[in-house]
UniProtKB/TrEMBL annotation:
Signal peptide positions on this chain: none
Protein name: Nicotianamine synthase
Membrane-spanning segments: none
Record-linked InterPro entries: Nicotian_synth, SAM-dependent_MTases_sf
Keywords, alphabetical: S-adenosyl-L-methionine, Transferase
Family per similarity comment: Belongs to the nicotianamine synthase (NAS)-like family.
Catalytic reaction list: 3 S-adenosyl-L-methionine = nicotianamine + 3 S-methyl-5'-thioadenosine + 3 H(+)
Pfam families: NAS
Length: 328
């Protein structure tokens, strides 16, 4: 069992102790510094398997995912409010310190998704767990899927209220980006209306909860619809939950992609079976496709070099906050 003798695990456990002792996870210098250290520690490739961790480290990992989720929510909520103070909020999305990461992740997901869509661009997309700053939806809608209607689901009414304020001033996106306040486990018939469903990484932070959500989607999504799931690989599993292809019951596993740059999330693409007895042929290896589409791809399986300007993950959010608040 891999435990705290591993230098990486030891460092992560030390950072967990420091993060756990913080009085608040709201954006500030101490919070920014510690989470930046954690992310930088987890980004480099490391041959670690989550199942091999001892029980104590498993508990620390689960708590870190919870803490990261809480801090991420507070950061997005802060910046959503800040952006809403502008007359045209969407013109200032770059103020969010990790905006470039979302540009890269959305581009990656769009390219992967495009390999598996058989009827062109999707007409209707659902994003489950959109939050107060739905950057993936906004980037996809503005940059890649210019005619698609996006339905965003979040259980928190305040998150949807903040997100709605961002799109209302935009004459195009205000018509194509819609918000629903609901627990996705209560949504049934509507799920059959979507060509593609995105499942955010932090919807169902415990494995059994994530599996229940996926099973619910399998029961109610349209036959042949595409599911895009965010996961994590290697040490990045200390930041986000891991989804195994075996968790995708009711779906045909199509591909998985593990970034090696500062995009943290892995991306899994799956298709809802046409019926319980059918099996959709697995689409050819996504690595071959990506090598043709993105010439900077490496030979290592499921890894590519950054294809947009990388964001400096060491940027000081606390300083950015002070500057932005003063300017607003």
């Amino acid at each position: 069992m891999v435990c705290q003798e591993d230098p990486l695990i030891r460092t992560i456990c030390e950072l967990h102790a420091k993060i756990s002792s913080l009085e608040t996870l709201s954006p500030c210098k101490d919070v920014n510094n510690l989470f930046t250290q954690l992310v930088l520690t987890c980004i480099p490739p490391h041959p670690i398997e989550v199942d091999s961790l001892c029980s104590k480290v498993q508990e620390i990992r689960s708590d870190l995912i919870r803490l990261c989720g809480e801090a991420e929510g507070l950061l997005e909520s802060h910046f959503s409010s800040l952006l809403a103070s502008f007359d045209h909020p969407l013109d200032h999305l770059h103020l969010f310190p990790y905006y470039n990461n979302y540009l890269k992740l959305a581009r990656l997901e769009f390219d992967l998704l495009s390999q598996h869509l058989t009827c062109g661009a999707p007409a209707r997309v659902a994003f489950v767990g959109s939050g107060p700053l739905p950057l993936t939806t906004l980037v996809l809608a503005a940059n890649h899927l210019n005619d698609t209607v996006f339905h965003n689901y979040d259980i928190d009414p305040s998150a949807n209220s903040k997100a709605l304020r961002l799109v209302l001033p935009d004459p195009d996106l205000s018509k194509r980006v819609l918000f629903h306040t609901d627990d996705i486990m209560n949504v049934t018939t509507a799920l059959g209306d979507y060509d593609v469903v995105f499942l955010a990484a932090l919807v169902g932070m415990a494995e059994e909860e994530k599996v229940r959500v996926i099973a619910h989607l399998a029961n109610h999504m349209a036959p042949g619809a595409i599911l895009v799931v965010r996961s994590a690989h290697g040490a990045r599993a200390f930041l986000y939950p891991v989804i195994d292809p075996s968790d995708l019951r009711g779906f045909e596993f199509l591909s998985v992609f593990h970034p090696t740059d500062d995009v943290i999330n892995s991306v899994i693409i799956a298709r809802k079976y046409m019926n319980l007895n059918d099996s959709i042929p697995i689409v050819h290896d996504i690595v071959t496709t990506m090598k043709k589409k993105l010439p900077l791809a490496t030979k290592k399986c499921c890894e590519i070099q950054p294809f947009l300007d990388p964001l400096n993950p060491c940027g000081n959010i606390a300083e950015d906050l002070a500057i932005e608040e003063k300017s607003s």
